[in-house]
User: Which sequence fits this backbone?
């Protein structure tokens, strides 16, 4: 997969932006970055799109800025010259796709049926847009289409919102989702960029779904671990379950048979995607203990933060 598309996969949500005035490009980009989504698909259906891409790409180099609603090769050139890192189109135009492929420009054309997907495969693509997602059958349609095309990933756009995004992202063939609910035109026109930032933060938190999974207590021995678990079982009915390296009391308390990471123990925080959560927290400046990462196949399922909090090591764990 192309490096740009891999980065989009880690971000998870691509804000689909319509700008009528290029003066809004910089404050909007700032709001998206501060909200945790350093990415934007600027639709090429307004006169301000080209200049908006140029401003975003120049003033916010950390952003992945792309062009959407690209219908011609001439628009591809204009978008890329302005700084667009990827191209998105509502449908599959073989001329536009081949032009991008030949120039090494990441492109995700719109598809809505198996014939479109087969055309994309013939043009050398392994990622396509699915549009309009909800109107074309939603996640159930994507799952049905994905079955025979095992190497293809999809980026659904159209009708995606905070209520249904996780039903899409839970499917491993979804690269990311395009959405506009955090960047509505009326908010942009009113200059309510603080609200856009807050809605973006909410979107990220909804996507990641952080929840406390359990607390691990460092014990000096197996005997102490069992005694600790017995106490929680006797007090609260948290059923004791003995494992190889620890003893659980229910699902919330883990008593370690020997001292593990963390001065006092560890705290496990569950998330919908360890990879996306790690990417988000790294953007915020947090570091990770890469040696602690655990995988299931090629999918990261757990990893510890580099620093303790209150004497506890903290790790992400896949829901």
Assistant:
């Amino acid at each position: 997969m192309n490096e740009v598309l891999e980065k989009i996969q880690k971000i998870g949500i691509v804000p689909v932006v319509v700008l009528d005035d290029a003066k809004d490009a910089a404050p909007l980009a700032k709001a998206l970055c501060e909200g945790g989504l350093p990415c934007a698909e600027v639709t090429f259906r307004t006169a301000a799109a080209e200049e908006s891409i140029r401003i975003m790409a120049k003033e916010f180099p950390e952003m992945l800025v792309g062009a959407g609603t690209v219908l011609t090769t001439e628009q591809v050139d204009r978008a890329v010259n302005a700084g667009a890192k990827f191209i998105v189109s509502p449908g599959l135009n073989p001329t536009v796709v081949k032009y991008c492929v030949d120039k090494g420009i990441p492109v995700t054309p719109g598809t809505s049926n198996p014939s479109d997907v087969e055309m994309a495969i013939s043009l050398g693509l392994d990622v396509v847009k699915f549009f309009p997602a909800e109107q074309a059958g939603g996640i159930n349609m994507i799952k049905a289409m994905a079955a025979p095309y095992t190497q293809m990933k999809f980026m659904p756009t159209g009708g995606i919102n905070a209520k249904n995004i996780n039903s899409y992202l839970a499917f491993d063939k979804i690269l990311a989702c395009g959405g506009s609910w955090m960047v509505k035109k009326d908010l942009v026109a009113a200059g309510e960029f603080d609200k856009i930032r807050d809605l973006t933060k909410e979107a990220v938190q909804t996507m990641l779904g952080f929840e406390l999974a359990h607390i691990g207590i460092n014990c000096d021995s197996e005997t102490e671990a069992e005694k600790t678990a017995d106490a929680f079982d006797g007090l609260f009915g948290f059923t004791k379950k003995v494992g190889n390296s620890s003893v659980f009391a229910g699902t919330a308390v883990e008593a370690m048979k020997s001292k593990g990471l963390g001065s006092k123990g560890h705290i496990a925080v569950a998330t919908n995607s360890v990879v996306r959560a790690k990417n988000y927290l790294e953007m915020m400046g947090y570091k990770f203990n890469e040696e602690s990462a655990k995988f299931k196949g090629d999918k990261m399922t757990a990893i510890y933060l580099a620093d303790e909090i209150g004497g506890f090591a903290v790790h992400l764990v896949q829901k």
